[in-house]
Design a protein that fits this description.
The complex is a heterodimer. By secondary structure, chain A is mainly alpha-helical. Chain A has helices spanning 2-33, 37-47, 51-68, 70-79, 81-100, 107-137, 166-190, 193-224, 227-233, 236-258, 261-283, 300-303, 307-334; strands spanning 286-288, 298-299. The longest helix of chain A has 32 residues, at 2-33. Chain B is mainly α. The termini of chain B are far apart. Chains A and B meet through helix 2, helix 3, helix 4, helix 5 and helix 13 of A and helix 3, helix 4, helix 14 and helix 15 of B.
């Protein structure tokens, strides 16, 4: 039951990265791919109807984590107190930027919110990656079952390093590049004209850089968490996900090279999902890795609520999750096709 | 530096109070908008259609601020209240996770459709999305109230071998009687807020001679809905809630009524100041026997006073609790009076000529927000010193490794950010109200452009 909930929580958070990831990527590229007011409105129009729903996956995934593994939620969130609060402020400003930009038609108003949207999206993408880096590398979880971590300390990864060190920054940059490519494909799929061309070019370039960084990230991951490849190699699920990852990456490459953004977007979504899935499957059952020693890590069995609670929650999840996916498909079908702007005013 | 507990409490208190200024309007307003939409759909009334569109714009800004200020709340359970989350997550995690799964997905899907999809997707889908939004936001309210109800009056749980709370009976937990009455009381309050805002804006238009037809419609809708909801606040929802309080939290009832001595035929204090050190109510104006009657239905029944409650189980801020409760109850009474007078004038078709009453309606707009905030302060201060009533003290629920200084820092950060958001909000909503319903809005909403896209 713990394994199932580990998979559900990891899956929901991975869906969050795939979905909100494309609108972070769109924000990262916003100022570059869209130059005129009409172009920028078309970028916002492409993500406008869906970004809020995308963000709900974070809340729903976080809620599932809280319910299934209260200890991991409590220890993790309080340990990362300051970084999380800073992240919240950026999330708030970025959300306002998307919603409020259109309420006043004035060039200065628009320019301010455009910049806020772009900067906020970029920061969130990096921080999301750095957060993933922290989870992989581990935190100084001690015998009292809590940890305290500075923003940065020793920049070279060690038991002393803070939230930002060479490894987590590397993962942050990789995430920004990959989500930028992902968002570029989304925009190419949803727009026409100059925005389409620039988005597709940006997606090609960014995914090329991401492909270049990937071996480095993989090597660094094995350095900071040397037990991962050992556990991973014994798990059929990891092999299966890796095979799917190869297929997804191939689809992505074909989509990019042939200039078919729809195919590329499916490929990049699947690539991100299987990449995160592989990492999660290799990590099971550890939820919070302690950088002070494997015995101090918090695993899913220790962090979970009772079997009864997990079973009850599974019952309502089997009702709720299909409903949520149903809404999503409904909305995506309604808004399918390219964005076309009405004349200004 | 005061101790960390104080800042953690103020941190959550401030962020949740600020957040709730927005949902209390959107939940009630979604109901009134649905009424406008239904009328427009059935009778094809252009006036109602325009009114629905106007209020949808106000709804949209409120909803956006409600969403962004709501996200920090789910984080704060973990960041600031880690020991509480670890202790109770197995139970309250259920309702919080269900809120995401059943309410947030529904709301977020239909929000864009509802706000900007009218022209593009036709009236039926528009009506459907208004109904879905109403259902989603009221469902969301239930899950949050059920979570709070567990903290007020825990049921359906068991203590596990690790000392943490676990879910024992899902239905007992979700259908907590406290949750049901608090929910009805709270949702009625959100309709009160929305009605006062709709009536107040109508009064403003009427007084300033703008949008005559819309002013009449807003006044009519706001006054009728406001009268019904204000009455429901007192009876049955407030009444039943008070009786539950006497049963489950006698200490809270005694403190909020300023009842230091138990007595048969307990007096109801209308005005007075509690002096906690001397254990008495100063300069009181009271109604004899009334409290006993309200709680137990007979003027002679004995109501437990603070004297029968151990000192370490008294709420820790009796003065504020007492004032908050009296502000809520006092305003609630005034609301009924104001709406009853307005309804009489409305029925005589004299409301729009009664300028003093229109002024009163316009200036009354902020007061449901004050009453609702005071009501929640009553609930939350009354629960003290418990975080989960009888099970965990507030002092034992914080995150031990988050210091007072860090908490104060982020509290100041939130205050600054929320001040800016408040100014933006008032500017945008003020502009919309000044402009009023109808065409020619200076607004170009990005998502609206998205909806102009071609299908397929």
């Amino acid at each position: 039951m713990e394994a199932l909930w580990f998979a559900i929580v990891a899956g929901m958070l991975a869906v969050y990265v795939v979905l909100d990831g494309f609108d972070f990527g769109a924000g990262f590229l916003h100022l570059h791919v869209a130059r005129t007011d009409a172009e920028r409105r078309s970028v916002l129009a492409a993500i406008g109807p869906v970004w809020d729903g995308n963000e709900v996956w974070l809340l729903a995934g976080g809620g599932a984590l809280f319910m299934a593994f209260p200890a991991a939620y409590a220890i993790g969130f309080s340990g990362f107190y300051l970084p999380l609060m800073l992240l919240l402020w950026v999330i708030i400003l970025r959300g306002l930027a998307i919603e409020l930009r259109g309420h006043v038609s004035d060039p200065l108003w628009a320019a301010f919110w455009d910049a806020t949207f772009a900067l906020g999206s970029t920061l969130i993408a990096v921080v999301l990656g750095a957060a993933l880096g922290n989870v992989v590398r581990g935190v100084p979880l001690d015998a009292t079952g809590s940890f305290h971590i500075p923003l940065f300390d020793s920049f070279w990864p060690s038991a002393r390093s803070g939230v930002l060190d060479a490894y987590t920054v590397l993962v942050g940059v990789f995430t920004l590049v990959a989500l930028g490519g992902h968002g570029g494909l989304y925009l190419a799929m949803k727009t026409e004209g100059p925005v389409y061309g620039r988005s597709l070019r940006a997606a090609r370039l960014l995914w090329l850089i991401a492909a270049g960084l990937f071996p480095l990230v993989t090597w660094a991951t094995m350095e900071v968490a040397p037990e991962l490849p050992v556990t991973a190699s014994h798990r059929p699920l990891v092999w299966l996900l890796t095979a799917l990852l190869v297929g997804a990456a191939t689809t992505l490459a074909v989509g990019l090279l042939r200039g078919r953004p729809g195919l590329g977007f499916v490929g990049s979504a699947a690539t991100l999902f299987t990449l995160l899935g592989t990492a999660a499957a290799a990590r099971w059952p550890v939820l919070l890795r302690s950088s002070l020693g494997p015995a101090l890590s918090l695993d899913a069995h220790a962090a979970a609520t009772t079997q009864h609670g997990l079973r009850v929650a599974l019952t309502w999840t089997l009702v709720g999750l299909p409903l949520a996916c149903g809404y999503f498909v409904f909305l995506a079908r309604l808004f399918r096709g390219k964005v076309r702007l009405e004349p200004h005013g | 530096m005061a101790d960390a507990l104080f800042w953690h409490r103020l941190h959550f208190g401030f962020t949740v109070t600020y957040h709730y200024l927005f949902p209390q309007l959107t939940m009630g307003l979604s109901f009134l908008i649905l009424l406008f939409e239904l009328k427009a759909y059935r009778s094809g009334s252009a006036l109602h259609d325009e009114a629905a569109r106007f209020w949808a714009r106000i709804f949209g800004v409120n909803f956006a601020v409600g969403v962004v200020t709501g996200i920090p709340l789910e984080f704060q359970f973990g960041t600031n209240w880690a020991r509480f989350s670890q202790f109770a997550g197995g139970v309250i995690g259920q309702t919080l996770a269900m809120e995401g799964m059943f309410a947030f997905f529904l709301e977020s899907t239909f929000l864009g459709l509802f706000l900007y999809g009218g022209k593009r997707f036709g009236p039926r889908l528009h009506l459907l999305s208004a109904a879905a939004l109403w259902a989603g936001s009221w469902l969301s309210g239930y899950f949050i109230i059920a979570t709070n109800a567990f903290m007020q009056s825990p049921v359906g749980h068991a203590v596990g071998p690790d000392g943490h709370l676990h879910l024992a009976d899902f239905w007992a937990f979700v259908l907590n009687p406290w949750a049901i009455w608090q929910y009805l009381h709270n949702m009625t309050a959100s309709v009160v807020t929305a009605s006062f805002v709709v009536a107040g804006v109508g009064a403003f238009w009427s007084l300033s001679g703008r949008h005559r037809e819309h002013a009449s419609l807003a006044l009519r809708t706001g006054v009728i809905a406001g009268l019904v909801a204000s009455c429901l606040m007192v009876f049955p929802t407030g009444d039943r809630h008070g009786k539950l309080l006497a049963e489950k939290q006698p200490a809270t009832l005694a403190a909020m009524e300023g009842l230091f001595e138990s007595s048969a035929g307990a007096e109801l204090a209308i005005i007075g100041q509690p002096n906690v050190q001397q254990r008495k109510l100063e300069n009181p104006i009271v109604v004899p026997g009334m409290l006993s009657f309200l709680v137990y239905g007979s003027f002679g029944s004995t109501v437990t006073g603070l004297d029968r409650i151990p000192r370490d189980q008294w709420p820790d801020n009796i003065e504020l609790l007492y004032y908050a409760y009296h502000v809520m109850a006092g305003l609630g009474t005034l609301f009924i009076a104001l709406m009853a007078l307005s309804a009489i004038q409305l029925r005589r078709r004299r409301l729009e000529q009664t300028r003093p009453l229109l002024w009163a309606l316009m200036l009354a707009m902020p007061f449901p927000y004050i009453a609702t905030t005071a009501g929640w302060m009553t609930a939350e201060l009354g629960r003290q010193p418990w975080l989960i009533y009888g099970l965990m003290r507030t002092a034992d629920g914080t995150s031990p490794q988050v210091s007072a200084g860090n908490t104060l820092f982020t509290l100041i950060g939130f205050s600054g950010l929320y001040l800016v958001i408040g100014i933006l909000f008032l500017y945008l909503v003020g502009r919309d109200i000044l402009h009023g319903p109808g065409a020619g809005h200076p607004q170009v909403v990005p998502a609206a452009a998205g909806l102009a896209g071609e299908a397929g």
